Amino acid sequence: MIRLLRLNKFPILKQLQIEEALYRAPNSGNWIIINNGTPEPIVIVGISGRADKLVNLDEVESRGIQTMKRFSGGGTVVADENTLFSSILLEFETLKQLFPTLSAISSSSSSSTLPSINDGNIYPKDIMNWSANSFYKHVFHEQIDFSLQENDYAFGKLKFGGNAQSFSKHKFLHHTSFLYDFKDDHMMACLKQPDKIPEYRRNRDHLSFLCKLKDRYQSKDHIINNLLKTINNLPTSPSIKEVTLEEAEQFLSNPHPKSNQLFDYNLKSWKDITNEYNPIKNI
Amino acid sequence: MNIIKTGIQQTLIKSSLSNSKVGIRAFCTHYSEELEWVKLSDDNKIATVGLSSFGAKRLGKINYVELPKEHRKCRSEEKFGVVESTNATAFGLYAPVSGEVLEINDKLKADPGLLNSDPANNWMVKFKVSKPEEFKKLMDSRQYKKFVKWYR
Question: Which residue from A46, A141, A249, B83 has the fewest beta carbons nearer than 10 Å?
């Protein structure tokens, strides 16, 4: 069974707290989470992100925009109400049941674009390939130039979706930020050119490297509907159970390491998130 | 009297990567389910932890390592750090035994790729062990080979 959680304008900071709780909980099962936008703009960096290297902190602070670090890998995004979030949390056993015919191609081949399982082991690159070739290719089936470029989804060489993953022994999380639309000014003003950039990006600045889904799809609902159809047409037809936010929130009460953090502009350092999901403990 | 015990010769080796003078028992490497190797000092007080070669291979090219601060206390199986690979993927690091962090390998911050190029000789963390009996829960080489074979 796969639990499907659909959210609308739900704060991505809280969504990532829920995702971390689900990811770290043993036996949390399989989940797909779709969120149609986050209400306020926010900069999100990956686990290895140095805020000072990736973000124009003074500019972001002056615009009243929060900066957070998420628990998964990957790059930086300025997310807002026009960002679509899609997260897939699957146990490896489930993935193999859904896709039993995946061929054993060496995952060390950098030119391989086919999903593969190598001697029973699944590697991060396998999941990245699988997500593009066995899942999101169907979501964006109308676009013949859809591709996976290193860790990004692109139309040709223009990125429209950024990916991040977390791996543990029994499961993986693969989550994506899709840029339906974005404020050009926010992207250029808030983000620095990272030191390490994907090869396919070359030296293009953000606006030359990114594209907007709204230029290809008239509405976010169209994309969400494509996503739901793809989920309902997964091979072997697993049962898909739509669940409530409260069911997902129950996992927050399991003790678990919390790696999502917020940047404190005064202290110029990361701090633990304190909110209703992680209240201050009374001493 | 033959001082070489049957099967195993115990040798004290000073780590070439550290100023630590704690001897490491060379032939008693154990492994955790989180793909880490662990070596216990002869006096059972210090555990040196690194990433196994299978772990490094599974992660792919490592571009970031986050290790705990010195003096941090960890319970067995508690998350103490994270590594990230160039596949935009984060992996947790978990304490194989309970203890207090004595030393971290600062070289890994500047060159995380050392965990790929030579995982056996690039330790990550040294713990002052608080429960030496936990070492028995770890796998020896033979058990680990079987474990890796069926690893998902």
Answer: A141
Are A73 and B87 in contact (CB < 8 Å)?
A: yes
Q: Which two tokens stand for residue A103?
A: 């061929």
pLDDT tens by residue, B92-144: 999 999 999 999 999 999 999 999 999 999 999 999 999 988 888 899 888 88
CA distance B96 to chain A (A): 15
With H, G, I as helix, E, B as strand and everything else as coil, classify residue A224.
helix
Exposure class string for A222-254: b at 16+ Cβ within 10 A, else e = ebbebbbebbeebeeeeeeeeeeeeebeebbee
pLDDT at A117 over 70: no
In sequence order, what DSSP letters do the residues of A134-190 get, joined into one string? IIIHHHTTT-TTEEEETTEEEETTEEEEEEEEEE-SSEEEEEEEEES---HHHHHHH
Domains and CATH numbers, chain B: 29-131 (2.40.50.100)
B13 pLDDT higher than 70: no
Q: A151–B63: do the CB atoms touch at under 8 Å?
A: no
Among the listed residues A275, A198, A283, A281, the one whose alpha carbon sits nearest the alpha carbon of residue A18: A275
pLDDT number for residue A120: 59
Residue A152 has pLDDT above 90, yes or no: yes
Contact A144, A109 (CB under 8 A): no
Q: Is the pLDDT of residue A15 over 50?
A: yes
Using a pLDDT cut of 90, give the percent of chain A over it.
Answer: 70
Phi, psi of A216 (to 5 degrees): -120, -20
Q: Which residues of A touch B (CB under 8 A)?
A: 46-48, 71-75, 92-93, 120-125, 127-128, 151, 163-170, 196, 257, 259
| Helix/strand/coil (H/E/C) assignment for every residue in A54-115 | HECHHHHHHCCCEEEECCCCCCCEEECCCEEEEEEEEEHHHHHHHCCCCCCCCCCCCCCCCC
